[in-house]
Amino acid sequence: MVYEAVRAPIVCLLTDKPNYNMALDVDAVLKRIGQFGPFQIRILVMFLFIFFPITYQTLIMVFVAFEPPWMCNRQSAACLATEGNSSSSRSLVYSTATKPSALYERRCTELKRTDWKFAEYNLYEGPHETIVNEFDLVCNRAFLAWLANAMLFFGWAIGAIVLGLVADKYGRKSVLFPSIIVVLVVSFAMAFAKVFWIVAVCRFIIGFFEAGCFLSMFVLATELVGPEKRALAGTLVWFYFTAALMVLGLKAYFVRNWSTLLILSSAPWVFILIFWRFVPESVRWLLVNGKKEQAREILEKVAAVNKKEMPRDELQVPVTTANQGVLELFKTWKMSKMSLAQIYIWFVVGMGYYGLSLSSGEFGGSIYLNFILTSLVEIPANVLVIHNCNRFGRKKTIIAHMVAAGIAVVAVSLIPHGTNNTGFIAGRVTLGTLGKMFITTSFNAVYIFSAELFPTVVRNSGMGVVSVASRIGAASSPFVVQMTRINAILPFAVMGSLSFLAAVFCWILPETMGKSTAEVMEDAKKEAEKEHAMVDFRGKEQAA
After folding, report:
1. pLDDT tens digits for 2-30?
2. How much is the pTM?
3. For the CA atoms of the chain, what is the radius of gyration?
4. Residues 6+ apart with CB under 8 A from 498
5. Which of 303, 329, 326 minimizes the C-alpha distance to 315?
6. Residue 76 and residue 70: Cα distance in Å, rounded?
7. Which residues of 156-180 are buried (b: 16+ CB within 10 A; e: fewer)?
8. What is the end-to-end Cα distance of the chain in Å, rounded?
């Protein structure tokens, strides 16, 4: 959840008009023309539709890159004999999630590729036509399926930097809709890939432009909402994200072919491009770039639709502070510790969030039900982050939920894996779902925390750096999940232990609730020194 952490200072400017009215900033104008009226609701409804095809691409590889179960070829005496009972082995199906016998482990070392085949559709529950059996991504080629998963996040990390700069120069709307076009077209084209490297390239391109979509969508969806309703609008946008993931799980249940799933997740949504005419450009971007008339025209449309009167006052140009660059984050040892701690925390929440989402098939039971459940818990997570951050503070909220996530995820690894025991499966699914809820709450809370921790002069750079860290964490998540091939305990043990360590790093950061946002580096340094001094004082007091 990203909330607007900075408010432009109110600067009183006298106009050259006879009535000498003071200039109004955008928030002051919105209070007069409607903070959450029909115009804003119309924009948010359009973004509901835009969010669906864009969100699908973030986790569609859970189904597209799923490894289908396999079975012995009836003609293979070597494969059947390995089980010791050739008559019963003819109908056995082995999956990545259950691994019921040593035969699975020996598939790549003792058997020829002709000794086994992927199981037929009616023998199991799960995607039956994926890129794994399409391009035979098994054994020494298995890592390619994980790489395809990771390519999106590598592209996203680069796209966030590049398209962020483009959006600053040419506008948010100018980045949003071209990015949407590319994502839809490339997603559709990927469905017809005949070789794996095309899939990998498509995923990278999709990730690159996904960054432009989400970056611009959040700004445009919340900017024209008044300050008193902006948190509501920002939260609503992330409910869209959750709803889209749940629909994706339902859609994948009925569409078991990876190519068809990609087509249905892109082509039917081309109609959202007509929203280009109705979604306005960022008013604040227009003002900062000297386009006051265009900004006024947009606000006049808002007033007309909301049936309010547009103030005749001059519009105030937002005050912007020059960004001092990434190096300022590491200029002193104390600032370096604050920056590095945040980078690590963002890396872990990125890995944990996407790692648990990609682990739907590892919990046992139905991959579709697991995926929907791990998506559904994001709704209470969104509520928790608002309540807990306001009541207990940002720091305590993140620490508590990182610890809870670590406990839940480690507990998953302790429950027997690869059995048909309903109790074990229910336990793994329940704990995995809770872990996803806790890590989502931490992820949303750290957005608020970091936006308030970074001083104004380096906020853009700071948020950019931690965002890249989270994408690197997300890119590593497919490889972490696939550690199950080494040992079933490893993926959840790794994610859980890293979550505990992230809670420790968060402890050294100063609380920001109820405190003024730092404007310059000196403010941040003083705040950090004050926090450390309090910790030292408490330590000495306890020792005494």
Report:
1. 333 322 222 232 233 333 346 788 888 88
2. 0.82
3. 26
4. 348, 351, 352, 406
5. 303
6. 14
7. bbebbeebbebbeeebbbbbbbbbb
8. 43
